[in-house]
């Protein structure tokens, strides 16, 4: 079935904004400017300030939800399903997970390349699958276990590519690259906990996706904004790249923005893109399919990699390409993208039917599950 112009627009919007989200965050990290009190010029290394901007983008989804709700109520026959009433505090635990994982990933993005950052986020499949078995009682089928093991292999390849490039690339020290990669994988453990919490406690209340994203953004934005105050006084030594070597120096960030307004453009790109990316992702799931959304989310890794190469942000490494392909295969196996092909083969049709189990339940989880990217 041919896609409509609106569906093509949504797919393009998701692919574009998803790519801009990571690229703009990396772009901000590459700026240098003077800080407060005429401190020497230094790189813009403020991951927690960037995370606040990302949550502001998610919070805007709540504004969009209420705008759509007001517009729908003006119709003679309202059609918008707002879901059941719920306690907003249900979103606090997953929001805290989202806040922690996002902050760690922005720290890691300072240490490694944008493409490796995006590829290594595929590790979320491993931990989501394992936690789903442990805490949700889910039974993974053979192809999902295979997808997990293939994903592990792909992560090893990407990690080796970074290890090799770290010896040749002066822009990132080898120790920083390895630490950054490990931090990204650590963040995926927390992101997986977030997904399991959302599935167990949140989505059973049939909350509208825009409302879910916006409510988590609300908690993340205000909590992390308040945490910037104690972060300003917590010394972390050489772990931090800001002049005072504290966990986060928000004042230094604003001073650098004042000396180099281009940083605002990068931060604004991150904030706006995450809002449109969430909207486009939800709309793609609704208008086309959740499978298409997963494919587009994987394709943005290619876009990020190609743009990074074109801009000279990183060098070409064949092992990284191979690792990406293996990660793509692992994600396809875990998410069942191979099943339509196997279903056409007579000898494999029965195996596909057994693997699918309860298709209605799987479709519900795919439709309601929010792809992590927000970064």
UniProtKB/TrEMBL annotation:
Stored Pfam families: SLC35F (PF06027)
Keyword Transmembrane: yes
The family this protein is said to belong to: Belongs to the SLC35F solute transporter family.
Protein name: Solute carrier family 35 member F6
Keywords: Membrane, Mitochondrion, Transmembrane, Transmembrane helix, Transport
Keyword NADP: no
Biological process per Gene Ontology, one example term: positive regulation of cell population proliferation
One Gene Ontology CC term in the entry: membrane
Subcellular locations according to the entry: Membrane; Mitochondrion
Organism of provenance: Salmo trutta (Brown trout)
Annotated GO MF terms: transmembrane transporter activity
Transmembrane segment boundaries: 48-69, 89-109, 115-136, 148-165, 177-197, 218-236, 262-282, 294-313, 319-337
Summary of subunit composition and partner proteins: Interacts with SLC25A5.
Membrane topology, as annotated: Multi-pass membrane protein
Domain of life: Eukaryota
Function: May play a role as a nucleotide-sugar transporter.
């Amino acid at each position: 079935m041919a896609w409509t112009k609106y569906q093509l627009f949504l797919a393009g919007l998701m692919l574009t904004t998803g790519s801009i989200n990571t690229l703009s965050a990396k772009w901000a990290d590459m700026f240098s400017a003077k800080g407060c009190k005429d401190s020497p010029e230094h790189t813009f290394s403020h991951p927690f300030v960037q995370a606040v901007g990302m949550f502001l983008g998610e919070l805007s989804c709540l504004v969009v939800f209420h705008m759509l709700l007001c517009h729908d109520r003006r119709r003679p026959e309202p059609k918008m399903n707002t879901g059941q009433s719920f306690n907003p505090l249900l979103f606090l635990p997953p929001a805290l997970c989202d806040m922690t994982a996002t902050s760690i990933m922005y720290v890691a993005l300072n240490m490694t390349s944008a493409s490796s950052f995006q590829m290594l986020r595929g590790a979320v499949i491993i931990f989501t699958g394992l936690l789903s078995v442990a805490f949700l009682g889910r039974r993974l089928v053979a192809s999902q276990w295979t997808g997990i093991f293939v994903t592990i292999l792909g992560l090893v390849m990407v990690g080796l590519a970074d290890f090799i490039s770290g010896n040749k690339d002066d822009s990132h020290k080898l120790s920083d690259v390895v630490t950054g990669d490990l931090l990204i994988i650590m963040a995926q453990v927390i992101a997986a906990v977030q997904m399991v919490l959302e599935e167990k406690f949140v989505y059973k209340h049939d909350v509208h996706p825009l409302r879910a994203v916006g409510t988590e953004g609300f908690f993340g934005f205000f909590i992390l904004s308040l945490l910037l105050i104690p972060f300003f006084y917590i010394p972390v030594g050489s772990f931090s790249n800001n002049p005072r070597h504290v966990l986060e120096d928000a004042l230094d960030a604003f001073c650098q923005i004042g000396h180099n307004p281009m940083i605002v453009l990068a931060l604004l790109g991150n904030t706006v893109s995450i809002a449109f990316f969430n909207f486009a992702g939800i709309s793609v799931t609704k208008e086309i399919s959740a499978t298409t959304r997963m494919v587009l989310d994987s394709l943005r890794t290619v876009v990020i990699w190609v743009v990074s190469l074109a801009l000279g942000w990183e060098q070409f490494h064949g092992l990284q390409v191979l690792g990406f392909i293996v990660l793509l295969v692992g994600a396809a196996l875990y998410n069942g993208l191979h099943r339509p092909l196997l279903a056409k083969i007579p000898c494999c049709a029965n195996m596909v039917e057994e693997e699918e189990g309860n298709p209605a339940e799987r479709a519900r989880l795919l439709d309601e599950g929010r792809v992590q990217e927000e970064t």
